[in-house]
Design brief:
By secondary structure, the chain is α+β, with helices and mostly antiparallel strands. The protein is 41% helix and 14% strand. Among the domains are: 15-209, Lambda Exonuclease, Chain A (Alpha-Beta Complex), CATH 3.90.320; 305-366, no CATH class. It contains 12 helices and 9 strands.
Length: 390
Amino acid sequence: MNAPKAHARFAASSSDRWVHCPASLKRIKKSPPQKSSAAADEGTLAHLLMEVALVQQCSAENAAGMLEEDEGHEFPEEMINHIQGFIDFVRGQMKPHYELLIEEKVYLDFIHPTEAFGTVDVAIVEPFGALHIIDLKYGQGYVNHRDNPQMIYYSLGIAHKHKYDFDEIKTTIYQPRAGSTDVARTDSFSVEKLKSWSKIFSDAVEHCEDADEDKDVHAGSWCKFCPAKINCPAITKSSFEMAKLDFGDAIQPAPKSLTSDQLKTILDRAAYIKLWIKEVEKQAEDMIKSGKKLEGWGLVPTRAQKKWRDINDKNFVSYVAFMEVVEEIPFHNQELVTPAQAEKILKRHVDKDVIERFMNDFVVTVSSGEKLSQINNDYDLDGLDDLEIY
């Protein structure tokens, strides 16, 4: 279950990108490998918990216990609750004669013989009925569920394997942290529409093979996770062209004076600018970390946070045990609250000097990393976030 997964050039997870931007594959091949992010690692952990719970037919909490004991993984309570919600949704779609596929490998070898495959989180096969593809998205960025190429890719692979013996195709994006009221969003379409995507994918594969690296690049929502976006001419061009907003004035107008159409235009175009600037900042950070200088810029520690120094310290354990006898327990459900939360609660029960000694003994203030910042100037650009624009 934890074996590393192979990656295909024409993968399901990146299908939105290579369908819309044919040159992306060639540009990615020449780009430096990307490091795994904290968000990606979190998503991998959530999918592992989901897989174990479904395969073992147990709760997310029990699956977390097994993984913690066997592999040393730790799962936040929030993640366990979210995954339990996903499991409940999947089980609610099942009937005795349905087939449940978990982490199923899907091949589109009729599109490309060796480089078109992916792994679907969950597929529910109703013989001669509906094919239901369900995908867990643990990230917080909203994912569109309508005509989603990744979901159609999975549907096409499984339907092809079953000789298209279905009367309906359903695809569901399950996203518990995107802030949407609809955690599970379902799209449905006919088998005929699904089959039409076979040509879309095959034409895209052919176009990718023959793509011109400079001409066949197209910017869009699919650029967000592209490894080649730092040097992409389409993003650079879009960033600068979309920044040219003609208001007829020499300076930007006050936001309160903008019409709804102007607000929409700016917000739509700002997405490209933010994407490009983010990659510029990352390139600058990498340059400075490698030992090169960038005049006027440097890396500074991120805002320090309070953390427990050593939760295994005998004195700390004894204090926690003592505090659990007070009216309001500061360490809930065997899960430690943060130092800030503990301090707030303790103020209701313990003298100030006792709290200070406790915090000094068992809390350390640390920075979680570094960030790019303008230095050696009379002003700090980070402070611009606090300015009010008139």
